Amino acid sequence: MALHGGGPALVGPPGLIPGVTLTPAEPGEVITLYGTGFGATDPLLATGQIPGGAAGLANEVSFTFGGIAVPSRDVLYKGAAPCCAGLYQFAVRLPTVVSDGNAAVMATVRGVSTPRGPFLAVRRQQ
């Protein structure tokens, strides 16, 4: 799932889900991504524990969108989502050079990358 900024507006190609408003992300925009399986946090959270505050990832994470690397300074938050046990949240500024269309999303932690398949709809405003 991806949100514009911190939400609640959803990122995606218009018309993908009937009755749901989705709009593409814009290069240079900050988006929020969610996922699972990114490893330990600091401070360490026990399995099933809902975070009581910020708990950043213990290891560095890098992102690419459409093969374009995100500079580490543009990964603005990486850690546990405050709402839910086992869910990670990332605030990331999209590189301004990402092409319009469906940009492949990849995250890498300790040399292990997310599976191929997730895409982010991107479109420059006219």
Descriptive report:
By secondary structure, the chain is mostly beta strands. The chain has one domain (2-122). It has no helices and 13 strands. The chain has strands spanning 2-4, 10-11, 22-23, 30-35, 41-42, 56-57, 61-65, 68-69, 75-80, 88-93, 101-109, 112-113, 119-122. The strands form four sheets. Strands 7, 8, 11, 12 and 13 form a five-stranded antiparallel sheet that branches. A four-stranded antiparallel sheet has the order 1-4-10-9, with no helix packed on it. It has a two-stranded parallel sheet with strand order 2-3. The protein starts with a strand and ends with a strand. The relative contact order is 0.24. The model has no long low-confidence stretch (mean pLDDT 94).
